[in-house]
């Protein structure tokens, strides 16, 4: 009787797809980043939540980026070249930004590139996010 019960339970798991679970590191849950052209999440009518794919690259549509807030579990970086999320000596990377993000890029210093406070407010052109 024990072997029959074990067989029924095992076949139930197989039919549910639980015997070979998907590797959770290969899939990222929905999410992304909340961005605004002004500091402190303004103007709210222009702010956008961008659903990102893992490693996705998004070009900022505004002249400035004032606020950036990755969703929980995501880390985002800013780059200086439009349409380019590949780090190079000419395409600086801000380094990782985690939840809750940076509300005021006009005064923020990444502490990584050696650029002055507010550099990323005017120079961020592209955002890349990854599920961490």
TrEMBL record:
Keyword Signal in record: yes
Source superkingdom: Eukaryota
Keywords for this protein: Signal
Signal peptide from the UniProt entry: 1-19
Name the record gives this protein: Uncharacterized protein
Source organism of the structure: Hypocrea atroviridis (strain ATCC 20476 / IMI 206040) (Trichoderma atroviride)
